[in-house]
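Structure (tokenized):
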């Protein structure tokens, strides 16, 4: 959403509307992304993009959604954005899969964590309804924040990304 091409246009819909960038479009058109030196927020869940579109629309900073582990189109897009000079910042679910996706996006595309650390997890745990959703057994290490992994192991509570929308939207305005 709100990713500008050549400084003039966005993917086929109007600014403020979520768009779908197909692998075919990304490979055939090789768009010139106008993102040099700009933050591009990368999220895991499409619900967050929808919430941002509803609440911020055209005033929202550029966003990309991986919709879970990035598939081919998302990988190509993230690679193109990084090559165009975007500062990628990643947020995902505070669960083990979210950490695995975060590790991948940060390692492969040079993204930095976006409110995706122990302090933000603990703040979310303090506000979370109980009993909440447990994390499960297949834990993962957050390569960017050992304290996050430790806090998640201690509290054993999964926090969905979209439940943090209000805080994340502050950064997107």
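Design, position by position:
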């Amino acid at each position: 959403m709100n990713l500008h091409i050549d400084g003039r246009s966005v993917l086929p819909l109007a600014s403020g509307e979520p768009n779908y960038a197909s692998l075919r479009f990304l490979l055939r058109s090789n768009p010139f992304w106008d993102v040099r030196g700009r933050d591009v927020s990368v999220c895991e869940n499409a619900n967050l993009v929808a919430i941002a579109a509803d609440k911020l629309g055209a005033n929202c900073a550029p966003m990309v959604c991986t919709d879970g582990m990035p598939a081919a189109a998302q990988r190509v897009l993230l690679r193109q954005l990084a090559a165009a000079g975007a500062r990628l910042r990643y947020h995902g679910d505070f669960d083990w899969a979210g950490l695995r996706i975060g590790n991948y996006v940060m390692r492969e595309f040079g993204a930095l964590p976006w409110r995706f650390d122990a302090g933000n997890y603990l703040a979310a745990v303090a506000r979370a309804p109980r009993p909440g959703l447990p994390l499960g057994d297949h834990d993962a290490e957050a390569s960017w924040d050992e304290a996050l992994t430790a806090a998640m192991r201690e509290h054993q509570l999964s926090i969905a990304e979209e439940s943090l929308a209000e805080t994340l939207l502050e950064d997107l305005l």
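Reviewer-requested clarification: The longest strand covers residues 39-43. The CA atoms of residues 17 and 148 lie 33 Å apart.
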